[in-house]
Amino acid sequence: MNPFEIFRLTSPFGMRMHPVDHVKRFHRGVDLVVSPSNGVLKAFVGGEVLHAKMGLTGSGFGNMGNVVAIKDDKGYLHVYAHLSEIAVKVGQRVVRDQVVGNQGNTGKSTGAHLHYEIRKACSPSFGYTATESGVVEPTKYLQDYYSKEELSKVDEKDANAIIDKYLKPAYGVAKTAAERKEVGRLADALRAASGQAKQNV
Ligand SMILES: [Zn+2]
Predict the structure, then answer these.
(1) Which domain covers residue 187, as residue numbers?
(2) Which top-rank group of organisms is this from (predicted)?
(3) In angstroms, what is the span from residue 189 Cα to ligand 1's centroid?
């Protein structure tokens, strides 16, 4: 699953030749392009808006133009840079796919695009680090995030129905301790995925 499906990826995460400075430098996020040039941008994950204005030099968002930064439930900061318009306010809670602004060319940028990065922390300086130590690879982070979100959507009743109808009988006829342990592990995986406490060995 590609979380950036609707975009054209113009510059990947990692070492690259910088398009403005023309030196090899670590790219802290991904550059994504959607059309039209002022197309709406939606939150890849929900959270709390911590920044929604022009990024000032020294703030952790220098040269990044208009920046929206959203802290997710794991404490990671999702940074949307170079926006032409900002649609959210600091302190606001946004949900996944909510519009955060419009693509633009503000700050140090060679054309309308979204620079998107995910920082491991929100402070100091909004979690900015000069090296790669402070950021994660966005595609993998979102894939992991979405897959866990899907699991947490398992309905408690459905999970318990599967446990009662299939796993408990399987436990009863299991011939070895290893088999019972495996059935118990599966039951606990279902309980965990539906937000319930684990019960088995
Ligand atoms: Zn970039």
Answers:
(1) 156-193
(2) Bacteria
(3) 38
